[in-house]
């Protein structure tokens, strides 16, 4: 996602922030004297533009400093800078209202100039009295600070941040309890403290919007689409894709049922929100390993290959840059490489939520991202660089037009490229896949993986603003914030909270876009997911692609690049339907391209779901709390049986042995060295001995070796610090090696428990 300034500046990460002047604007930032003539309108616009560039440079600088180094000092500077920016907007906006008559504006020969003047007259938060303006900015800064500093503490001396620890747990663990602990901990730690701030923020935000002539802030935000039928258009789009979503939901629910059983999965009910591979269940691609239609086909996740080739954050961004330049678009300026924050620093708190930044001086553009070397993050890198490419292309437009044609355009551009980057063809081209296999089964694997990311997201992208619009309009009162949040999530997503949630909680606040007031414009992500497929289809045509749409890679296509450049350079200077018409030949958003892209997997899902219930008629069903939760998760620092240093954690390992042995004895399991019996992926192994004699320790090691090899794909994060050549060697049986054998045995138990929590 991108970032920027207020409602008329290119914006995504709204904090409107800056290097403060403690409420005292420089004289050079104040408007001069003008008369009510068309000549002075043009002079006013020119003066405004040059001044706005200066103000916004300092503004975004203060926001950047705070986001990359969270401290009370930087927070104070950011709040002061926001006040300065709002004072600037107030001064110039009031001057425009006082001096220039509507008749003069109507007589301007260039309609773009009139459009700019109308934007300048909208003051936003600058409408608020000074004291309330200060309160508004302080609330925003406080909410973002709470969110960014939140951590889960499984033990007093152990903490899990959202990135990377909690994100990795949600993506990689298959333990029902551990996922529940991470989910509940994050929602409590980040959401609950925000609850007391949000109602006052809503009150102040509505007051500012109403002063600009809007009913409320939701009405204000929707006006950016310049469409009286916007809400109805969104509803029609959602109705079009809903059958596909319900088929995907039913298939995923069945696979989760096969793993977790009827106790935790109701085949006619919503899915517990913590089981879908993501803290917010907004994308489900992290559980693809459990959903793979044809597991014998090559694995399309190139994360391991990226690591093997020595990828780091900088190289990932260079790869993304080369994709853009291959289309004839701009390379990143030197300031980008010098000033961006591409990895999470160790010495300070930062806002890890990935974002792109325009500093409004036409040369300084940055990305802030706590990048890790994964395939998913490679796509995020392309997405964020898509924002920067947009900034570069429209940098010479007036400040008021430096944003996407509509809010969804900005989000769509980077994702359009990701549709090409994720294809096996492209991954092979950049040497991350050894070969490309083109057959029905491989295509279905690929399309299901894409559906888990793209289709799974659409209801979430739709409902988050349904909730906010309801809050701003008063339709959702303060004493029903959380209840209505979960009503919407169950209605549209078919998910439910895995624990009891009440109005003492504030689960919307556990998603960055709420406390960060991001996504200033409504449904930008939902709109972008529709638009990106419309753009993709047209760009593939320009690239002379033949074959199914999902196999298209526009890499190195000058024709596709020319279309993109035309869209990007226009910014928001023309109505978005006109820009869309010029680019792809239609002025309407529609889901036909998306449905065309996913057509093979749509048909496949329908076949799989012949006997499944589509939807969630048992809408009020919720899962039970597991026995022993959360006490057993808190053992061993919250890591269950997993650990990386047996020598310093012998107590944990001994607890793990007792636990594993007890469970295995209860199920009368024994050990076998037959390789076929340990390759069962989702069921308990049928045989396992546990003793401490020398020969039997050898058996434990051999079993662990076979078992780990057969299921490592399900828990790759466990193995990052294990040195297998040392552990697997059977040449030594020294005392220390016995401890290693014990450790490896517990590791196998942990994997087994993660894959099937019932044993």
Automatic annotation (TrEMBL):
Catalysis performed (reactions): Met-enkephalin-Arg-Phe + H2O = L-arginyl-L-phenylalanine + Met-enkephalin; substance P + H2O = substance P(1-8) + Gly-L-Leu-L-Met-NH2; bradykinin + H2O = L-Phe-L-Arg + bradykinin(1-7); angiotensin I + H2O = L-histidyl-L-leucine + angiotensin II
PROSITE patterns assigned to the protein according to its UniProt record, in alphabetical order: PEPTIDASE_M2 (PS52011)
Superkingdom of the organism of origin: Eukaryota
Pfam families, alphabetized: Peptidase_M2
Annotated glycan sites: 69, 110, 312
Residue numbers annotated as active site: 384 (proton acceptor 2), 384 (proton acceptor 1), 513 (proton donor 1), 513 (proton donor 2)
Cofactor: Zn(2+); chloride
Residues that hold chloride according to the record: 225, 524
A GO molecular function held by the record: metallopeptidase activity
GO CC list: plasma membrane
UniProt keyword Glycoprotein, yes or no: yes
GO biological process: proteolysis
Residues at which Zn(2+) 2 binds: 383, 387, 411
Keywords: Carboxypeptidase, Disulfide bond, Glycoprotein, Hydrolase, Metal-binding, Metalloprotease, Protease, Signal, Zinc
UniProt signal peptide: 1-24
EC numbers for this chain: 3.4.-.-
CDD domains (alphabetical): M2_ACE
Protein's UniProt name: Angiotensin-converting enzyme
Organism the protein comes from: Anabas testudineus (Climbing perch)
């Amino acid at each position: 996602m991108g970032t920027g300034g207020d409602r008329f500046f290119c914006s995504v990460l709204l904090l409107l922030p800056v290097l403060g002047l403690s409420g005292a604007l420089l004289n050079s930032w104040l408007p001069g004297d003008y008369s009510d003539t068309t000549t002075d309108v043009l002079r006013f616009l020119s003066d405004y533009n040059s001044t706005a560039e200066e103000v916004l440079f300092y503004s975004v600088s203060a926001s950047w400093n705070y986001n990359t180094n969270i401290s009370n000092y930087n927070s104070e500077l950011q709040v002061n800078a926001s006040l300065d920016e709002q004072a600037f907007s107030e001064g110039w906006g009031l001057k425009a209202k006082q001096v220039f008559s509507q008749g003069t504006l109507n007589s301007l020969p260039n309609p773009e100039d009139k459009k700019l003047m109308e934007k300048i007259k909208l003051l936003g938060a600058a409408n608020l009295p000074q004291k309330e303006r200060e309160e508004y900015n302080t609330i925003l800064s406080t909410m973002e600070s709470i969110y960014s500093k939140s951590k889960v503490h499984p033990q007093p001396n152990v903490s899990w941040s959202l990135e990377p620890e909690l994100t990795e747990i949600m993506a990689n663990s298959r333990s029902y309890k551990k996922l529940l602990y991470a989910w509940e901990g994050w929602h409590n730690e980040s959401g609950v403290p925000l609850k007391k701030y949000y109602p006052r923020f809503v009150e102040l935000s509505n007051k500012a919007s109403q002063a600009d002539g809007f009913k409320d802030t939701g009405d204000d935000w929707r006006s950016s689409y310049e469409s009286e039928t916007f809400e109805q258009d969104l509803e029609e789009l959602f109705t079009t894709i809903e059958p596909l979503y319900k088929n995907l939901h039913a298939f995923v629910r069945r696979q989760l049922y096969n793993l977790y059983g009827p106790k935790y999965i109701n085949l006619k009910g919503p899915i517990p929100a913590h089981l879908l591979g993501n803290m917010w269940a907004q994308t489900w691609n992290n559980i693809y390993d459990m959903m793979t239609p044809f597991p014998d086909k090559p694995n399309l996740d190139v994360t391991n290959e990226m690591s093997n080739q020595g990828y780091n954050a900088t190289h990932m961004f260079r790869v993304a840059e080369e994709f853009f330049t291959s289309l004839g678009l701009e390379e990143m300026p030197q300031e980008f490489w010098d000033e961006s924050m591409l990895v999470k620093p160790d010495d300070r708190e930062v806002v890890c939520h990935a974002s792109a930044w325009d500093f409004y001086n036409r040369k300084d553009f940055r990305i802030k991202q706590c990048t890790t070397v994964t395939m998913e993050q490679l796509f995020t890198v392309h997405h964020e660089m898509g924002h920067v490419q947009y900034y570069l292309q429209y940098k010479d437009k007036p400040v008021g037009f430096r944003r996407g044609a509509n809010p969804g355009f900005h989000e769509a551009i980077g994702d359009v490229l990701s549709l090409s980057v994720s294809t096996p063809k492209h991954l092979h081209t950049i040497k991350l896949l050894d070969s490309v296999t083109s057959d029905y089964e491989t295509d279905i694997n690929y399309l299901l993986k894409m559906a888990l990311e793209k289709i799974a997201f659409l209801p979430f992208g739709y409902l988050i603003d349904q909730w906010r619009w309801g809050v701003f309009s008063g339709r959702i009162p303060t004493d029903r914030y959380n209840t209505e949040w979960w009503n919407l999530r169950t209605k549209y997503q078919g998910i439910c909270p895995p624990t009891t949630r009440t109005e003492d909680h504030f689960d919307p606040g556990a998603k960055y876009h709420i406390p960060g007031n991001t996504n200033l414009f409504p449904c930008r992500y939902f709109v972008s997911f529709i638009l990106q497929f419309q753009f993709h289809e047209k760009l593939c045509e320009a690239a002379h692609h033949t074959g199914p749409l999902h196999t298209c890679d526009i890499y190195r296509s000058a024709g596709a690049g020319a279309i993109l450049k035309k869209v990007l350079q226009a910014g928001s200077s023309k109505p978005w339907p006109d820009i869309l018409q010029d680019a792809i030949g239609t002025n309407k958003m529609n889901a036909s391209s998306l449905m065309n892209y996913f057509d093979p997997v749509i048909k496949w899902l329908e076949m799989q779901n012949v006997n499944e219930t589509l939807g969630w008629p048992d809408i009020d069903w919720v899962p039970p709390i597991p026995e022993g939760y959360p006490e057993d998760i808190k053992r061993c620092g919250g890591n269950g049986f997993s650990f990386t240093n047996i020598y310093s954690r012998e107590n944990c390992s001994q607890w793990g042995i007792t636990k594993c042995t007890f469970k295995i004895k209860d199920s009368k399991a024994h050990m076998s060295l037959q390789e076929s019996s340990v390759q069962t992926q989702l069921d308990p192994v049928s045989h396992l001995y546990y003793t401490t004699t020398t020969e039997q320790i050898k058996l434990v090691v051999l079993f662990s070796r076979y078992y780990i090899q057969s299921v490592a794909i399900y828990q790759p994060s466990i193995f990052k610090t294990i040195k297998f050549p040392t552990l697997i060697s059977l040449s030594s049986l020294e005392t220390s090696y016995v401890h290693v054998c014990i450790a490896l045995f517990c590791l196998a138990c942990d994997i087994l428990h993660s894959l099937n929590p019932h044993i």
